[in-house]
Amino acid sequence: MRNIWFHGILCLMGMQGVEKLRLAMKVFDEMPEKDFFSWTVLIDGLAKCGEVETARRIFENMPNRNLGSWNTMINGYMKAGDTNSACKLFDQMPTRNLITWNSMIGGVKLNLRFLEALEMFERILEEEFRPTHATLVSVISAVSGLASLGTGRLIHSYIVKNGIELDGVVGTVLIEMYSKCGGIDSAVTVFGAISHKKLGHWTAIIVGLSIRGMADHALKLFHEMRRIGVKPNAITFVGVLNACSHVGLINDGHKYFNMMINEYGIKPTIEHYGCLVDILCRAGCLEEAKDIIEELPMRPNKVIWMTLLSGARNHRNTKIGEYAAQHLIEFAPETTGGYVVLSNMYAVAGEWEKVSEVREMMKKRGLRKDPGCSSIEHKGVVHNFIVGDESHPQTKEIYSKLAEMREKLKLAGHVPDISQVLLYIEEEEEKEAELENHSEKLAIAFGLINTEAGCPIPIMKNLRVCSDCRSVTKLLSKIYSREIIVRDSSRFHHFKDGLCSCKDFW
Predict the structure, then answer these.
(1) I want to staple 204 with a disulfide (CB 3.0 to 4.6 A). Which of 6, 121, 144, 175 is the partner?
(2) What predicted TM-score, i.e. pTM, was given to this entire model?
(3) Could you tell me which residues are beta bridge partners of residue 381?
(4) Which residues lie below 8 Å from residue 134, measured CB to CB, with a gap of 6+?
(5) In residue terms, where are the PPR repeats (predicted)?
(6) Residue 376 is inside which H or E element, if any?
(7) Is the pLDDT of residue 13 over 70?
(8) What is the DSSP letter of 283?
């Protein structure tokens, strides 16, 4: 027995790097007897080295398999991104334990298959397993990925009902989930209910408040955590700088950036510099933002170039926009968003020849613009809309509500921002018609039809909301006395009483 254990340890040592892979295999092959530990360690090590198929062959050759070997193989597939093979193996298992379920839920979540994670969580409860903290962390993260506020509330209720403590990571991911799903008030409530707040909890609520444009609240909590002796980390400062960015606090942004370096000794990362550039771009200080990028101690990434390009588009500075686009396309030629924003900038300026040139460039490179898609959850079902969508079962009612919205907007004095139309259309009426069917407007119409008066309407969009849709949504929140929460690719917009939480810095 001691000899088997000794060889198992040798095998484990052999798996610490790819270069020792052959040695580990040799040690394993020479073992006179092999126990479950040796087989499982070898499978795990091979999978970690990226040799998943070799690991599977070893697994198939095991004379007897226990739950540990099955779980190790599933975990290996998940880490390699091969979710389908993991699912097939899972279906073949004679028995499963909670470790199996945790590996599956964590794996499908990691590979962005969020709905499957929720379905597996339901199966766990049906089979009367008691979810661990790891289970809950994975499934709550999956809810965040789907922006499914209703499902998130159900899981939160389960946590409360079963007396599960929020002092650890579960509390952190709950705060993050509510923040990302449009339930910031619930995020604040969860934060307040945590008796022993750790750095992760403080950071999660500060980041959550900052992306909702609630800078005053975020910065107040930041000062409170410092007052009671909780030391912020690099992620905390990303949240603080984002808070400054989303409401245009230029001086405060510089102050906190310097505080991070001088007071806490935190070396700025590309994310921190990105926040600083974003602060300046949102406020229209494009030359200063450009100077910071040119003096960066590391190579600018595509996010920073995209930030400068978007800022140039928003403030109609074609010169800096072209400068940013050139660098962005050189850095990441496959990023369609850069071409789209550049095309948008030219369209706003009426430079239609350049719009055509950009589109021709995309065509030659085999690139296509991602279609805008807006999602809204109702009674546990996520409804997706694209521009001009007529596929929904309630299409007739939705377009009838759109017509009603259009009339009410006209009476309120809204004038469509036709500069947002990227197509070369001569007639203004045609341009206005193009704007009317944007995906978020369809989602809002659906929400007005299907939710009770006074209920918030949470919407998630895969692209940045255009200025016309933003102006329309501000007015609609006042006209219909509704809170409308739009989570786009850039930030949260919380519309209420005709105002937006971004305070026109977006």
Answers:
(1) 175
(2) 0.81
(3) 378
(4) 102, 106
(5) 35-65, 66-100, 198-232
(6) strand 373-378
(7) no
(8) T
